[in-house]
Specification:
With about 180 residues, the protein is α+β, with helices and mostly antiparallel strands. It has helices spanning about 35-55, 60-65, 85-95, 100-120, 130-140, 150-170, and strands at about 10, 15-20, 25-35, 145, 150. It folds into 2 domains: about 10-75, no CATH class; about 85-170, Orthogonal Bundle (DNA polymerase, domain 1).
Length: about 180
């Protein structure tokens, strides 16, 4: 007889998350609830429901976690017709928010809004080429920061965020080839 799936409620950075195995893959899904006795009780109740659904073969990941960071496993292969900005805001940033503090996620958002989206935001992911990234790099070199031109460190931080968006797009099969590599 197969071992029953256990759903654990864990705390990470003050927020509760559900941690479980489903179809051989480990999932850690944020509940968005602060860790306190009432919320923990609520999450434990939801964990029991998930365990029951899995045991009965009725678990629907997309219904249970419509914005879950692993939803790409349960949807058809994406086409890449999504714009860089839309992908960054609807897929990459929520994915990163599960790993970052709120202030860091906000900083990532500000970086992309101010520096990444003006150059790449409207470009469809499938149409991004290395030339787009070269133009972005050149435009960053010409920009002025608070105290003169942008430092090489700041430019690298901006380019790193763009690279992370493209890496996730490639990983989730929005791109056949990563233009940054």
């Amino acid at each position: 007889m197969a071992k029953a799936t256990r759903v654990h409620v864990r705390e990470r950075r003050g927020t509760l998350l559900s941690d479980f195995l489903y179809q051989g893959v480990r999932y850690r899904e944020s509940t968005g609830l602060r860790d306190n006795p009432d919320n923990r009780k609520r999450c434990l109740h939801e964990a029991q429901r998930i365990e029951s659904e899995i045991a009965l073969g009725e678990f629907d990941y997309l219904k249970r976690f419509p914005h879950g960071n692993q939803r790409h496993h349960f949807t058809a292969k994406p086409t890449g017709d999504i714009s860089f900005e839309e992908f960054a805001l609807t897929v990459w940033l929520p994915h990163m928010q599960t790993k970052l503090s709120e202030t860091t996620a906000e900083e990532y958002h500000r970086i992309l809004m101010a520096r990444g989206f003006p150059s790449l935001g409207s470009v469809s992911l499938k149409n991004i080429r290395s030339e787009h990234l070269d133009r972005l790099t050149l435009s960053l070199k010409g920009l002025k920061g608070n105290e003169g031109t942008l430092s090489p460190r700041r430019m690298n931080i901006i380019l790193l965020r763009v690279r992370q968006v493209l890496d996730l797009a490639f990983e989730r099969e929005y791109l056949d080839k990563n233009p940054h590599s």
